[in-house]
Amino acid sequence: MIIIFLGAPGAGKGTQAEVLQERLSMLHISSGNMLRDHTRRGTELGKIASGYMSRNELVPDDLIIEMIIDRLAAPDAERGVLLDGFPRTLPQAEALEAALNLRGKMVNAALYINVDDGVLIDRLSGRLTCRNCGHVYHQIFAPPKVEGICDFCGSELYQREDDTRESAIKRLSVYFNQTLPMIEYYRERSMLCEVNGDQPIDKVTEDLMVCLR
Fold first, then answer.
1. How far, in Å, CA of 147 to CA of 160, rounded?
2. Which residue out of 36, 71, 123, 171 is catalytically annotated?
3. What is the pLDDT of residues 65-97, one digit of tens each?
4. Is the pTM of this model over 0.90?
């Protein structure tokens, strides 16, 4: 199975993907982590992607899709994949579908975690990110065990410029303008399952599991 996680920044996609990864024994692929991994390993794809990132340009969709297709071919992806962070727009969704179809694969479900705008802004404005592994914390809702230090790799945590309240509002505006057509795209194909993300983590997880039954 190939399952896509949809939801605004701060909706909890990464958290739920990690939980479902354990429950379903599936591979969690984060497009952001995947880009960082290719760049760190110095792969050919990573070198091309780093060139765009060094110029503060968006990495082209076809390059990210190539990375995803490459990852899907790995042995640890045989039991299924939870795709987090891609696609983000309707053209990306269409391009991903075309690339998968050429390989006899398809998206089986699109899980949409819907959260109220006000709650999203509160969540985003307190986020902390690990400089090394990219794991995300929150100053109030999910603080690290040791202040300023990542629980997983021991690296420094920092607050990105786009995690301020003003930036959060702008990010959400851009997200919804880009993503609403994609949500309808998967809804029209009977792939979409929407859950209320403004609940305790374990309740959101249970609702997502119901979607996959």
1. 16
2. 171
3. 888 888 888 898 888 999 988 898 898 899 999
4. no
**Catalytic site residue 187?**
no
List the catalytic residue out of 40, 160, 189, 203.
160
User: Is 105 among the residues known to form the active site?
Assistant: no
SS3 track for the chain = CEEEEECCCCCCHHHHHHHHHHHHCCEEEEHHHHHHHHHHHCCHHHHHHHHHHHCCCCCCHHHHHHHHHHHHCCHHHCCCEEEECCCCCHHHHHHHHHHHHHCCCCCCEEEEEECCHHHHHHHHCCEEEECCCCCEEECCCECCCECCECCCCCCEEECCHHHCHHHHHHHHHHHHHHHHHHHHHHHHCCCEEEEECCCCHHHHHHHHHHHCC
| Active site (annotated) includes residue 131 | no
Residue 160 annotated to the active site: yes
Q: Which amino acid is at 186?
A: Y
The bridge status of strand 127-130 relative to strand 136-138 is antiparallel
> Is 103 a known active-site residue?
no
Dump pLDDT digits (tens) for 21-64. Answer: 999 999 998 888 888 888 889 988 889 888 888 887 778 888 88
Which position among 13, 36, 71, 123 bears the catalytic label? 13
